[in-house]
Amino acid sequence: MSTPKVNPDMEYRRLGNSGLKVSVLSFGSWVTFDNQIDNNLAVECMAAAGDAGCNFFDNAEVYAGGRSEEIMGHALRELGWERWSYVITTKAFWGLRPDVPNMNNTTNRKYLMQSIDGSLERLGLDFVDVFYCHRSDAHTPMEETVFAMHDIIASGKALYWGTSEWSADDIRAAIEIAERHHLHKPITEQSQYNLFERNKVENEYARIQHDYGYGNTIWSPLASGLLTGKYKDGVPEGSRGALDGYGWLAERLTDADEIARVERLRPIADRLGCTMAQLALAWCTKNPNVSTVITGASKVSQVVQNFETVGVIDLLTDAVKEEIEAAVA
After folding, report:
1. Which neighbouring-strand residues pair with 57?
2. pLDDT at 231
3. What is the per-residue pLDDT across 216-236, written as a single tens digit (0 to 9) for each?
4. What are 244-278's pLDDT values in tens digits?
């Protein structure tokens, strides 16, 4: 048996106000697993992340229709990591049965109780460390969702629970219900955050972050690859923007105004001696309310490069951050 390595250069932050420590850079499977990464490459990519000190691996029931969880589960078995050495998360809301009542677009008790069982089976695990409600459900009473998530934790199938892309009002309502009934509270959000997508994390969540120490395991720190600068001359073959069904994404990735903003970052990255991707990832880590920055990759070389960002973080002084702000304004 083995474990992911503890990298002395990696920062491990508390997940929200819990005692759980997560690597400030982590690895997720959205878009890439099954679409770009098969079983064998998943093993290699997760091994590279583990070698860099990553201990947090993110997934979701809906990713690739359940295949993403299966691939990650296969990789964990192949790697033979001790279960205590890593943090696994998954999410539920959309479901895998779009035509069956109660099995999609909900956080009702029936769906959540059965969803966690399906995820654990696909991952090949007895429990996940964090189970997220992937969206909030206006058609299910908040009390029902909070009690169900509490019971999932009480059953030992998850250790903590969180929210993803919830409104601040819904998060506060869930926390207050949990406190009122002495239930397990959600401890972390998972929302999009990058240089171009900032309002929720920096403004809407400001009060709940202050009042509850609410964490955030942010996704899309590179704006789906836009902030890497690789879309300057169009959509490269094999990139995320070239995938079938992602035409909506390709339109944004090739938007002239967005690319112009990205290109204003290139001189800053060149001067610091880092890639544009590393600059954007490092910028995300500088927000103290970000518990971990979830990275994605379709190649081992990308994983290695992303995690080398740990050597860039300290280069982002206040003066450099001001320069970055001015560049993307």
Report:
1. 27, 88
2. 82
3. 999 999 998 999 998 887 676
4. 766 666 777 888 888 999 999 999 999 999 999 99
Instruction: Locate 268 and state its tokens.
Output: 């800053």
212 is a catalytic site residue:
no
The amino acid that residue 94 corresponds to is W
Correct CATH for 12-224+289-297 of 3.30.1330.60, 3.40.120.10, 3.30.565.10, 3.20.20.100: 3.20.20.100
- From CA 112, how far away is CA 114, in angstroms rounded? 5
pTM for the predicted model, two decimal places: 0.95
Q: What is the 3-state secondary structure (H, E, C) of the chain?
A: CECCCCCCCCCEEECCCCCCEEECEEEECCCCECCCECHHHHHHHHHHHHHCCCCEEECCCCHHHHHHHHHHHHHHHHHCECHHHCEEEEEECCCCCCCCCCCCCCCCHHHHHHHHHHHHHHHCCCCEEEEEECCCCCCCCHHHHHHHHHHHHHCCCEEEEEEECCCHHHHHHHHHHHHHHCCCCCCEEECECECCECHHHHHHCHHHHHHHCCEEEEECCCHHHHHHCCCCCCCCCCCHHHCCCCHHHHHHHCCHHHHHHHHCCHHHHHHHCCCHHHHHHHHHHCCCCCCEEEECCCCHHHHHHHHHHHHCHHHCCHHHHHHHHHHHC
Q: Which of 210, 174, 178, 209 is nearest to 193 (CA)?
A: 209
Residue 238 reports pLDDT greater than 80: no
Among 12, 63, 193, 246, the one annotated catalytic? 63
pLDDT tens readout for residues 199-216: 999 999 999 999 999 999
